[in-house]
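quick one if you have a minute, typing this from the bus. below you get a single protein, a line of residues and a line of whole numbers that encode the local backbone shape. could you go over both lines and see whether the tokens make sense for that sequence. anything you notice is useful, everything is just below.
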Amino acid sequence: MRLPIDRGWAWVVVTACTALFAISAGAGKCQGVIMVEVIDKFQGVYKPSSLLWVFMSTFIFDGLFGPLAGYLMLKIGHRWSAFLGLFSLVVGNIGLAYAPNIIAMIICHSIPTGFGYMLTSFVAIMASSPYFVEKKALAVGLTTTGSGIGAFAIPPILRGLFDAFGFSGALLIYGGFSVQFMCLAALLRPISYYTKKSKKLPTPAGELTDKEDGSGNVKDSTDQTAETDVDSPDTREIERAPSANTENKAKEKFTWRVILVPKMLMITMCSVVYMLGFSVTYTCIPAFARECGISDKLVSILMAVSGAIEIPCRIGNGWLADRKIITTTAQFAICVFLAGFFCLLCAIVSNLAGIILAIIGVSAVGSSVFSLEPLVFRELLGDSHVTSSLAMQAVPQCVSFAVSTLITGVIYDKTGSWRTVFYCISAIMMVSSTITWPYLFKNWYKRRQGTTPS
């Protein structure tokens, strides 16, 4: 059976992965919409800075479950991993609907939702990789547009559900909505489906075999067979996609030692510092908008617009990475810096225009950082270490979520201003991009000297 490399079923897999990324990473950006409802429900019982921990702990557990998600994905495959991740998301929504206090919300919502986000988004990013060679970066870019699609579609849906059915009813319906994505997860056909040898059927009596002519003599078809094998579509596709040839190449294994590779440490440090600022942006933007006198409905619309902005930008970043005009690592560093710069403009302007600038920044370039990460690891470490790199990187990232939540809560409690919070997180994001500058400058200098970059 001919392998669907860069064509055919490969695009069906990308479509399914995009939808899965929408319900995981896209829904994660809507935590601010749910947080506003939780603050209203527990008004007078808990401070907003305390309730912030419920939602930030979701992303903390998201990172802690990274190695487990990577191991499960390599062990049980993409399809069953997606089923398990979606089930965890449903459990998390039901748990939040009836949780009576913060401890219950963390246990019943943050833990299963964090695991579901990590496993589902991990599958969405990696499942299409075996199906692409020449358009791999574009496929990842298209998949990660699901984050923008989710951020575009889910906020108004949640807003309507909360208005019509109340807090618990809205979350129950939203959980039922998540279950439907299991149908799309079923489309994640493993590439081994196309590489398995078909079993030979017994030859019926009276029929000729492949090596017999009508006189009963055996034909010498060695040369013919060899020529056919070389020119066959199957052989050409396998040569184009060696990672898909499961018979001739060892299966990728999970290894924690990848975290010790210097290039891996560089990207991980940059990402960890970046997450100190970026991780609270989508959660704090609705609260900052309230401080600026902007209505909740308008904020929901703006969050939806952020998803629309993100879609073409992620595709554009994937297209640019395939063109190799600049290195993917340089592209990654530029996006990190610009995300912080736009958040700084938001804090300076501090009105509706500022909120719009923040949304444009985190949607157009800030979110693209995460779609570029697997491409950066592939560029620096090779295909065989992408899964392990993403999984191990998630562990230190959870420290960023914890620290950023603590810092955000302390700053808001001391100043009573979300504007001050945005000044801090913008500075952190811009500083994080400088971690990659020595490596980029070194490679640029080597190219100027005519030597091979490291």
